Amino acid sequence: MIEMHDIWKTYPDGTVALQSVNVVIDRNEFVYIVGPSGAGKSTFMKLIYREEVPSKGQLSVNGFNIGKLKQRKIPYVRRNIGVVFQDYRLLPKLTAYENVSFAMEVIEASKRQIRRRTMEVLDLVGLKHKAGSVPAQLSGGEQQRIAIARAIVNNPSVIVADEPTGNLDPETSWGIMKLLEEIHFRGTTIVMATHNKEIVNTLRKRVIAIERGTIVRDEPRGEYGYEI
Asked: Which ranges carry the ABC transporter domain (predicted)?
C-alpha cells in the first residue's frame, strides 16, 4: 500500500525533517507512528497524502509514484486516501451531513449516491441523528466522528490519522479508537500518528518510531516507548 525508499525531506529553510527513511506498509495494516515532538511524524504523514513531496527518494502510495505525480492525477490519488486531523477541520457553516457529503460532491457522485452513502457513514459513526447540526453544536468527540465519516465516505484504501485523539478526553479517545478499529476491520489500512501512550500500549499494533527524522524502531506489536 505504502512504500518509502531512501526518502529525504528538506524544507526551504534547510530543516531536514526526514532522512533515509525506508518503510513498507502492507494493505490492511494498522500502524502507529510515534516519537518526540518535532521528530518528523507530521512530515511523514503529509508525504503520504501528498501535501508535501519528497526531496529525494521514491514514495509510492497505492501504486502511484507520489514524487512524480502529475498535477491532474493528484485529486484521483487523494480519493483513495482519507485524512483525519487533530483539529477536525470541519467547515463551520456546513451541517454534519454537508461536511461529509461535500467529499462526494467533489468527485461528482450522483445525488442519490451521495444521500445513501452519507447517511450510511453517519450511521456507522453513530451520528445519524446529528446530520443537521453544525460543528459548533457538536462536542469535540462528535466533531472528530464527523471528520472520520468524511474521511471514509469515498471508501478510501488508506486512512491517515494525525493525532486523532489529541484534543479529546480519555473516554472519548477510546470511542474514537473503537471506531478506527472497526474501519480497519472492514479492510482499510490505517496509519496513525499519536502521543497517546495508553492507547498504543493497550491496542497493540505495529509501531514505527521516528527520532530526528530517522526511523529508530519498527516493531510488529510494539509499545509506545517514551515517557510523556
From this structure: 2-228
